Amino acid sequence: MSTKGIAMEEARLPEILAEWTDFDVAGYRLGRFIGAVPQERSFGSMKGAFWIDGFPLGIMLDEMLESMVKAGVLQKNDDLQYRWNPVQPDPDESLDEEPLPPLR
What we know:
Layout: H1 13-16, E1 21-22, H2 23-34, H3 43-46, H4 48-51, H5 56-70, E2 74-76, E3 81-84
Antiparallel strand pairs: 1-3, 2-3
Helix pairs in contact: 2-5
């Protein structure tokens, strides 16, 4: 499934992150989807928020992506890419590993 031709404003998150996507692009797309990144901001204007320490929005979106991996909603590969898990996780399944630390 390709997201080409799908406006992020109209697509669902499983469609937006259907294919393996680099961490910074995945964070940007997630931020746009939840409304944390203004629609007029391009990826290029936001890229530094994901590559440079100290940007709270980039930190938040990275933590959200990682939480979604732990919950089984997203998959993450060794190239730091994310994609929607094609197998829906069981919401009643407990976490087998140590949870993420509390957010700052």
